[in-house]
């Protein structure tokens, strides 16, 4: 019964992604997909979900803030001096160290609200989610392009 509920939640999220209201943001659709994906893959109980999601959202917010703080992607390395490139590399290494500390801290917190096996699966499921999301976006993009360019009727 529990697996049926989880599967139905997962399916509803896909339906929500496909039939969202015109004003609904893409980010809301992605969030619904993420919740369904993690809930199904981790087989979260309602009690676990209640404790897990606020904590996981807090983790993601802190992780994103840390990455934003050290955002080097917009810098043109080829236009920077060697000294600036070296500083950028050191900044990136500092960010990686802080990310490891953040993951270690939240892993401990997750162990307080989830069984250890579910905690161990989190990183893999997060990576699987990102791949599934990219695949879903790719499929939708291809479907839109395929549907827009159809054979002409005379």
What labels describe this entry?
154 residues, mainly alpha, 5 helices, 0% strand, disordered N terminus
Residue-averaged pLDDT? 82
**Total of helices:** 5
What level of helicity do the residues show? over 70%
Give the count of structural domains: 2
Provide the succession of SSEs: HHHHH
Q: Total number of β-strand segments?
A: 0
Q: What general outline do the C-alpha atoms trace?
A: flat
Helix-strand category: mainly alpha
How large is the share of residues in beta strands? under 5%
Rg calc: 20 Å
Distance between the termini: 53 Å
Low-confidence stretches: 1-20
What composes the largest sheet?
Answer: none
Description:
By secondary structure, the protein is mostly helical. It folds into 2 domains: 1-44 and 118-147; 49-113. The chain contains 5 helices and no strands. Helix 1 (2-18) runs antiparallel to helix 2 and helix 2 packs across helix 5 (116-148). The longest helix has 33 residues, at 116-148. The termini are far apart.
């Amino acid at each position: 019964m529990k697996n049926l509920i989880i599967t139905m939640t997962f399916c509803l999220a896909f339906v929500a992604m496909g039939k969202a209201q015109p004003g609904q943001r893409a980010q809301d659709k992605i969030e619904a997909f993420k919740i369904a994906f993690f809930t199904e893959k981790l087989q979260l109980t309602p009690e676990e979900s209640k404790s897990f999601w606020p904590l996981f959202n807090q983790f993601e917010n802190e992780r994103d803030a840390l990455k934003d703080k050290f955002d080097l992607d917009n810098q043109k390395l080829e236009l920077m001096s060697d000294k600036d490139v070296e500083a950028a590399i050191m900044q990136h290494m500092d960010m990686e160290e802080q990310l490891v500390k953040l993951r270690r801290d939240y892993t401990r917190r997750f162990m307080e609200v989830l069984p250890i096996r579910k905690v161990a699966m989190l990183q893999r499921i997060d990576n699987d989610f990102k791949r599934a999301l990219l695949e879903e976006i790719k499929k939708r993009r291809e479907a839109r392009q395929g549907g827009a360019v159809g054979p002409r009727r005379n």
